[in-house]
């Protein structure tokens, strides 16, 4: 997927990306401070927002197979189960309830299968949202901070799930995260955003270790110290 | 006990039964049509941008503020024998009353649905896009997700419909067995100094209002319970 | 600023609608809800006389005409609420007013007999007429012909059906003629005041029974063309007597009995009786009421 001369104005904030290539089959990380344009760019890719100018070349990717999950995912006014099967329903696919039950058990949501989705905790809502997104086998997945409220165990489960799917199906991922360890463990490539612009793009190691850009350097240093503190 | 017996006696009186029937027929018909118009209009206003949209919203707000009796007068002038729609002979008929009620209730439902939609629909739309829903599926989903709010708007409209007096009196003419509603009957009975039947009708309206209020509240409560976790 | 604009817009909007229709409401067309009106007080009044009366005395404008004269002559400020005869008497019965002026002799005498009123004094009369389309009924003096024809030919007829003095008079005539009006399915009850009922009859091209005063006023003042004509007048059954009764101060000590007595003496005086006899002549070409105080009507 390639982004060419993408421009979007939202109030005083402007996104301006002359060129960005997201190699298919890779796990990409979008990093940068809050309000740097990561989420807006992701929304433009996911077709939630329409660009003012420029284009996004999907290179044969079906727009219905591009998906995105949010930090506070939208929960339908219905049960957990109905939420999970919604993408199947609109595709006229009959859900396999036994399979779904097994999945819910694995991710510790089975007890709450019949419960009203909006009554779940934020972490549970994020889990539900990830499962709901992956169930229809999308080819391009953007995960916008949807791993932020998970417990350590759940996080590990999902990290493994992402890597598994990645190996088996070779789909493209974009992870937006403030948690450096997630980026570190999962991503191949990272893209650094600041003030609505893409300022650095490249292999993870290259950006983290050898970047000459002062903004990237400050950010990485802070994150590494943060990581040390966490340990 | 005497009061209860008297109330039962009065209730079985054909006049009251007719007033209840006329009221319900009028309210159900006008609310059905108003809901259809108001929900569609509210959702369209939220979804599309077009020239004159702000004017339309302002006109709708203005209509919200117009006293029903003024609407009644306008409809009366329209339907008069020498008025522009005189040939339809709708004056002093239930149909004419329904027309007036639609003009009163549609703006209420429109503005309620519109303001709910402004708050809800963008998030639903974004979600639907990420799920790969078609345009049609997205529209259905928006309506489904606003189900409670839409019920609430309809219930509110129905409450207005049964409690309306001024316009109904003007356009309907309060003709016994035909266009006499519960409210116009109360107003007439009071003017005759007859209070028992008036009070009975009032109590009945109160019961209706209570049921509606309870229904509306239970929708809201469901919402609240759901959001509060 | 935006708010102000919105308000201006709103006013313009409503004004254009009203102006566009080129009609104005008939403020005096009788309404069945009670309306309180006060006369304009030129001198400082020494108190208020509260009257309940029938819609016809208000709809004809008689009270608006008499109240300032009454204030000047006696110093009492006359305020009234115009409702149906039934409620007018009920208000007297509850002690809510000081005096009652209405036109249903039997009910009035009953009111006095039960001790709610002091004494009934006849004041004036007007007459009832039947108005409606000139076809198929031809104008006649005989009420029996008209009512029989309405009933047998199933012609639209709008009755007030509100238990008012006029309504009672109409019912009494049907009863006297031994006709059950309800056998005609086009016999409707509006449950509203006289003015509303006449305009309704005009819209529906129906017949209706009205007092002459309200009829003349509506016919003259209505912004809408009234296509109805008098089809029956002059029958003895059509006479409409008004009486005035002071509410009994022994029953309700708080009522203003002095003002009530002043009003009765004043309205029955020769001078005021002459004023009543002249009322409406310049405007309608004929008097609306015939004074007859002191008679036995």
Summarize the structure.
The complex is a heterotrimer of chains A (231), B (229) and C (297). Chain A is an alpha/beta fold and 231 residues long. Helix content of chain A is 39%, strand content 24%.
Topology readout:
The complex is a heterotrimer of chains A (231), B (229) and C (297).
Chain A: E1 2-10, E2 13-21, E3 27-31, H1 38-45, E4 53-57, E5 66-69, H2 80-90, H3 97-106, H4 122-134, E6 140-144, H5 152-169, E7 172-176, H6 180-186, E8 189-194, E9 197-203, H7 204-210, H8 214-230
Helix pairs in contact in A: 2-4
Chain B: H1 2-12, H2 14-47, H3 53-65, H4 68-79, H5 94-131, H6 135-145, H7 147-163, H8 166-172, H9 182-191, H10 196-227
Helix pairs in contact in B: 2-5, 2-7, 3-5, 4-5, 4-8, 5-6, 5-7, 5-8, 7-10, 9-10
Chain C: H1 2-21, E1 35-38, E2 47-54, H2 55-59, H3 62-74, E3 76-83, H4 85-93, E4 99-102, H5 105-113, E5 117-132, H6 143-152, E6 157-159, H7 165-176, E7 187-189, H8 194-204, E8 207-211, H9 212-221, E9 229-232, E10 239-247, H10 257-268, H11 270-278, H12 281-284, E11 290-291
Parallel strand pairs in C: 2-3, 2-4, 6-7, 6-8
Antiparallel strand pairs in C: 1-3, 4-10, 5-8, 5-9, 5-10, 5-11
Explain how this protein is built.
The complex is a heterotrimer of chains A (231), B (229) and C (297). Chain A has 231 residues and is an alpha/beta fold. Chain A has one domain: Rossmann fold, CATH 3.40.50.300. Chain A has helices at residues 38-45, 80-90, 97-106, 122-134, 152-169, 180-186, 204-210, 214-230; strands at 2-10, 13-21, 27-31, 53-57, 66-69, 140-144, 172-176, 189-194, 197-203. In chain A, the strands form 2 sheets. In chain A, strands 5-6-7-3-8-9 form a 6-stranded mixed beta sheet, sandwiched between helices. Chain A has a 3-stranded antiparallel beta sheet with strand order 2-1-4, covered by helices on one side. In chain A, helix 2 packs parallel to helix 4. The longest helix of chain A has 18 residues, at 152-169. Chain B is mainly α and 229 residues long. Chain C folds into 2 domains: 35-126 and 241-291, 3-Layer(aba) Sandwich (D-Maltodextrin-Binding Protein, domain 2); 127-238, D-Maltodextrin-Binding Protein, domain 2. Chain C has 12 helices and 11 strands. In chain C, strands 1, 2, 3, 4, 5, 6, 7, 8, 9, 10 and 11 form an 11-stranded mixed beta sheet that branches. In chain C, helix 7 (165-176) links the parallel strand 6 and strand 7 (187-189). The model of chain C is unreliable at 12-42 (pLDDT under 50). Chains in contact: A-B, B-C. Chain B binds chain C through residues 58-59, 61-62, 65-66, 70, 73-74, 77, 80-82, 91-92, 169, 173-176, 178, 180, 184-185, 187-188, 190-194, and chain C through 6, 9-10, 13-14, 17, 21, 23, 25, 32-34, 83-84, 86-87, 89-91, 158, 161-164, 188-192, 196, 200, 202-205, 224-225. Chain A: Keywords: ATP-binding, Nucleotide-binding, Transport.
